[in-house]
Amino acid sequence: MTERYRLTGRTATEILASLESTIRDGGLVAGDIVPTVRALADELGVAPGTVASAYRTAAQRGLVETRGRNGTRVRPRPAVAVRDGGGPVPEGVVDLASGQPAASLLPRLDPARLGWDRAAAPDGLVLPALADLARQRLGADGVDAEHLTLAGGGLDAIRRVLAARLAPGDAVAVEDPGWPNLLDLLASSGFRAVPVRVDQAGPDAASLAAALRNGARAVVVTSRAQNPTGAYVTAERATALRRVLAGHPDVVVVEDDHAAELAGVPLAPLAGATQAWAFVRSLSKPYGPDLRLAVLAGDGATVARVEGQLRIGSGWVSTLLQRAAVALWTDLEVTDVVTAAAEAYDVRREALRTGLVAAGLPALGATGLNVWVPVPDEARVVAELLAAGWAVAPGQRFRQGVGSAVRVTVSNLEPGRVDELVGLLRAAASPRRTGGPVSA
User: Fold this and answer.
1) Which of 171, 188, 208, 327 could make an SS bond with 79 (beta carbons 3.0 to 4.6 A apart)?
2) Cα 315–chain centre separation
3) DSSP 280-300
4) Backbone angles phi, psi at 267, to 5 degrees
């Protein structure tokens, strides 16, 4: 065992606590291999079954993952606060890694204008004015919002739906590559992720069918601006997916429309394709990352179960946020700001994608804030771009079975610097380079 850490304990509970503490304190970091069951059992003088039980619980809690012959490793983002020495993007480096909207393109949040001084506990879980607006907006996109509630953001809504409908150990079909936060959520909740291939028209129907045949009891689909590929579900693909889902009426379908007003393409919803479904639309991307509010429409039973969770937990989503949502959705000036932001992201994303394709890099990015760039060696690309003053996200965080890639968020990409970035990416991705610093 490495000298960097030493696991201790005589019982499964003690070994688990030691493992968690070691991860939390940075003795074990993402990707590190933990000792084999037999090796640790021999070292601690306990039965192999004791260690196996500790590791099994650690996996269920989202701390480690088993990779067959490659051993058991600490997850890329273990479900525990970690002293990993990480921090913000260094000063002087252009942040193309965060996945967040540009602060300069967000609408201004004026507390007086948003009515935050008039907050009070709601009579129900959703303010009537917000419920009416949500039903109008979702209805215009073809989503039945008769049954509707709120959650504390998109991920919270997905978590509540899955908890209301599934049991620990159940399999969930998810996009590959897909949203790291969702993968972390599944791991920490005891669910098993089953990858579904994604192309620019959304989840592949044949891949989804295979996942359902292999026991997936739920599927999470990103409607538009898929993270990290920018894919969106086209009307033709939605028809194919509905055809697959029709043969699995008990499967829970969760749609995540996190980009909403920023997407720039029509919505092709899957709502109602099965008996249990939920459609989630959050405010954080168009209006501000700190607006942790999501509208959740779905079948009556699913919405009722989610509301039951809210009533015995947080009670309701903050009235301050609900009033803010009403104000933002009814302010024409804010609408203009969001529309301008969507257009700016489209220009930046398409300029980068077009430049990369012309340079021989098959970049993907049909909608949203991100461009997905397959590369031979993502670690090298990330390191060399950082050295040149650009931060991009390694694809390892997003993928289960697909190949090496990097994700580039265009929010902070100035149009005049696209060619510079393309040159850096092309040089860093070249398999014939011999090393050394890159230059545009």
Assistant:
1) 188
2) 25
3) EEESHHHH-TT---EEEEE-H
4) -85, 135
Beta bridge partners of 373: 406
- The two tokens of residue 35 are 């000792």
Q: What is the largest CA-CA distance in the chain?
A: 69
- The phi, psi pair for 281, rounded to 5°, reads -130, 120
The answer to whether the CB of 76 falls within 8 A of the CB of 31 is yes
**4 confidence band (pLDDT: 50, 70, 90):** low
Q: Where are the alpha helices (DSSP H) in 36-171?
A: 37-44, 48-60, 111-114, 128-140, 154-165
Q: 374-386: per-residue pLDDT in tens?
A: 999 999 999 999 9
- H and E: helices and strands count for the chain: 15, 14
- Neighbour-count burial of 181, counting CB atoms closer than 10 A to its CB (0-12 exposed, 13-18 middle, 19+ buried): middle
Task: Please state whether the predicted TM-score (pTM) of the whole model is above 0.70.
Answer: yes
List Cβ neighbours of 140 (8 Å cut-off, separation of 6 or more).
none
Distances (CA, A) of 381 to 53, 77, 218, 223, 320: 39, 21, 35, 29, 43
**Tens-place pLDDT, residues 109-140:** 776 666 555 555 566 789 999 999 999 999 99
CB-based contacts of 270, cutoff 8 Å, min separation 6: 221, 233, 238, 241, 242, 245, 253, 255, 277
- Angstrom distance (rounded) from CA 406 to CA 370: 10
The amino acid that residue 176 corresponds to is: D
Q: The tokens 């639309």 sit on which residue?
A: 281
